[in-house]
C-alpha cells in the first residue's frame, strides 16, 4: 500500500523494524529464563504480543486501501491468555494532529467489525445477493476517519476475533472488561507513542455506552495519579447509550405513544397502574396486562428504527426481540452457525454478508488473525458466554467526568425505539447543569439535521434526525458533520 504521510512512513519503518527485532528479543528473553533463577518461570514470554499487521488490501475491495489500516492483538489477561483484537485506521486528514478515538460497540458481545463496516468506518459491504464468493467492499465517504484516527476494539474477550486460550478468560463482566480495556490502551499507547500527544476520546453506542464513561473515569484517575503513559484524554461520546437505569426502557412507553404506536388508553393505563414498577417484572395484574398488550404492539415495529422494515437479524444484537431471533433453515454449506438471511431490501442484509466476509480464509490472512484462535467469527453472541452486568448505573460517571472538565457528547437517533431519545434527554437533564445554549436546531446544507442543547461543564446533547439506534448507520452524512464539528470544538 502507498503510504501518504510522513508519519505513516515512519510508523511503517518502525513496524518493520519491530517485526525484525522481536524474534531476537524473544531469543534473548528465552536465554535469560534458562540461565537465571526466576521463581515463576517466564510469564512475560506468554504475555508477549505479536507485531501488528499492516493491511495493504482486503478481499472484496478493488485495489489498495485508500487509508492506513493496522490490525493486531493486545494481551489483557496473562494468566488466562486473553487477547483483544483491534483494527486501527489512521486519520485521512492530518494524523499528526487529529484526535484518536477508541470505539466500542454494543450488543451481546458484538464484534466491533459491525461499527467499522456499518457505522463509522471507511468501508461498506456492497448489498448484493451472496453468490458463494467473498462479498465485495466499497469505500465509504462519510467515515469518521476523515477527521480522526479510530481504534476499533473487539471487546469484551470473546467478541469478534478476540479470544482466550483458557475458557476461564471468557468469564468477565462490565467492570472487569472495562479494566481490561484500560490495560489494552496503556499497552497500545506504549507501543504507539507517536499518538500520545493527540487529543484522545472514548466513544461507543448502545450497551457500549455503559462502558465508555466508566472507562473514561478510570483513565482520568490514572492521569491524576501520574501513571505512564500519560494519555491525552479530552472527553468521550456516546450514542443512544444504555445507562443501566430503568429510564432506558421506561421511556419506550411515552415514545411509542408520541409516535402513534400505542393508544391514549393504553398509555394512560400503563402510567396509572405501573407507577414505579419494573416493566420487566410487573407486580399487579392490570400493569401486567397492559404491558403484555404493549409488547404485542412493540413487536409490530422495527426496534432500531421505527420507520424501517421489520427484519430478522443475522445474530443477536442491539434491540433484538425474541421474535427476531429466528434462524432461517437454509443450508449454506459454508458456516457451522448459519446466519439468517433477511430479504435484500432489509437494512440487516449487510449483517448476513459480514459472516461470509469475516470467515473467508483470505480475509483472515489479510487481517493477521491467529490460526486456531477462533473457530468461527460471529457478529454477536446470543448470551452463550458469561457476562456480568455489574455497572448498575453510569449516570454518576457522566456527572463525575463532566464536573472534572472533560468534554462529553451524548447523541440519539430520534427514531430509535430501543433506547429512545426521551430517556436519554431525561437523564442528561437530571444532572441539573445550567444551560449554555438553549434547545435549537442544528443544520446541514441549510436544513435541520437534528436538535441540540448545550450545558455547562462541556456537556452537549444532540438528536440526529431520521437516525435509529446506531445513528451513523442510518444517517452517516449527518453524523459525520455532528462529530466533525464537536471534535473540532465548533458549535453544532
TrEMBL record:
Keywords, sorted A to Z: Glycoprotein, Signal, Zymogen
Family recorded in the similarity comment: Belongs to the peptidase S10 family.
Protein name (record): Serine carboxypeptidase-like 19
GO biological process, one term: proteolysis
GO molecular function, one term: acyltransferase activity, transferring groups other than amino-acyl groups
InterPro entries linked: AB_hydrolase_fold, Peptidase_S10, Ser_caboxypep_his_AS
PANTHER family: CARBOXYPEPTIDASE (PTHR11802:SF46), SERINE PROTEASE FAMILY S10 SERINE CARBOXYPEPTIDASE (PTHR11802)
Highest taxon of source: Eukaryota
Amino acid at each position: 500500500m502507498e503510504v501518504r504521510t510522513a508519519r505513516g512512513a515512519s510508523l511503517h519503518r518502525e513496524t518493520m523494524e519491530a517485526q525484525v527485532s522481536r524474534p531476537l528479543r524473544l531469543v534473548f528473553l528465552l536465554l535469560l529464563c534458562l540461565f537465571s533463577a526466576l521463581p515463576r518461570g517466564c510469564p512475560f514470554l506468554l504475555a508477549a504480543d505479536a507485531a501488528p499487521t499492516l493491511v495493504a488490501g482486503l478481499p472484496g475491495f478493488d485495489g489498495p486501501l485508500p487509508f492506513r489500516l493496522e490490525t493486531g492483538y493486545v494481551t489483557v489477561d496473562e494468566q488466562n491468555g486473553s487477547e483483544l483484537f483491534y483494527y486501527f485506521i489512521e486519520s485521512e486528514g492530518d494524523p499528526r494532529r487529529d484526535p484518536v478515538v477508541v470505539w466500542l460497540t454494543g450488543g451481546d458481545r458484538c464484534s466491533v467489525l459491525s461499527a467499522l463496516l456499518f457505522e463509522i468506518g471507511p468501508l461498506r459491504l456492497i448489498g448484493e445477493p451472496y453468490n458463494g464468493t467473498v462479498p465485495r467492499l466499497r469505500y465509504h465517504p462519510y467515515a469518521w476517519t476523515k477527521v480522526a484516527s479510530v481504534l476499533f476494539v473487539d471487546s469484551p474477550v470473546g467478541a469478534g476475533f478476540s479470544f482466550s486460550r483458557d475458557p476461564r478468560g471468557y468469564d468477565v463482566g462490565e467492570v472487569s472488561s472495562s479494566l481490561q480495556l484500560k490495560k489494552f490502551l496503556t499497552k497500545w499507547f506504549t507501543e504507539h507513542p507517536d499518538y500520545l500527544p493527540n487529543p484522545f476520546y472514548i466513544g461507543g453506542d448502545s450497551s457500549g455506552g455503559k462502558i465508555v464513561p466508566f472507562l473514561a473515569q478510570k483513565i482520568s484517575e490514572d492521569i491524576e495519579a501520574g501513571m505512564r503513559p500519560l494519555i491525552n484524554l479530552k472527553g468521550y461520546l456516546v450514542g443512544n447509550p444504555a445507562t443501566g437505569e430503568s429510564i432506558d426502557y421506561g421511556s419506550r412507553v411515552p415514545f411509542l405513544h408520541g409516535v402513534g404506536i400505542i393508544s391514549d388508553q393504553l398509555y394512560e393505563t400503563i402510567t396509572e397502574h405501573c407507577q414505579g414498577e419494573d416493566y420487566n417484572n410487573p407486580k399487579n395484574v392490570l400493569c401486567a396486562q397492559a404491558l403484555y398488550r404493549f409488547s404485542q404492539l412493540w413487536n409490530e415495529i422495527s426496534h432500531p428504527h421505527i420507520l424501517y422494515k421489520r427484519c430478522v437479524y443475522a445474530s443477536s444484537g442491539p434491540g433484538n426481540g425474541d421474535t427476531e431471533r429466528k434462524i432461517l433453515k437454509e443450508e449454506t454449506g459454508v458456516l457451522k452457525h448459519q446466519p439468517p438471511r433477511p430479504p435484500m431490501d432489509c437494512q440487516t442484509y449487510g449483517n448476513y454478508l459480514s459472516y461470509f466476509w469475516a470467515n473467508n480464509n483470505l480475509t483472515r490472512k489479510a487481517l493477521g488473525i491467529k490460526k486456531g484462535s477462533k473457530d468461527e467469527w460471529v457478529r454477536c453472541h446470543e448470551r452463550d458466554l458469561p457476562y456480568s452486568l455489574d455497572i448498575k448505573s453510569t449516570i454518576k460517571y457522566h456527572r463525575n467526568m463532566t464536573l472534572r472538565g472533560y468534554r462529553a457528547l451524548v447523541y440519539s437517533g430520534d427514531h430509535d425505539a430501543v433506547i429512545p431519545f426521551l430517556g436519554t434527554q431525561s437523564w442528561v437533564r437530571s444532572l441539573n447543569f445550567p444551560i449554555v445554549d438553549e434547545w435549537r436546531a442544528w443544520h446541514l446544507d441549510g436544513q435541520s439535521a437534528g436538535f441540540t442543547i448545550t450545558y455547562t461543564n462541556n456537556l452537549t446533547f444532540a438528536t440526529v434526525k431520521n437516525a435509529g439506534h446506531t445513528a451513523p448507520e442510518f444517517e452517516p452524512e449527518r453524523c459525520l458533520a455532528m462529530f466533525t464539528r464537536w471534535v473540532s470544538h465548533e458549535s453544532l
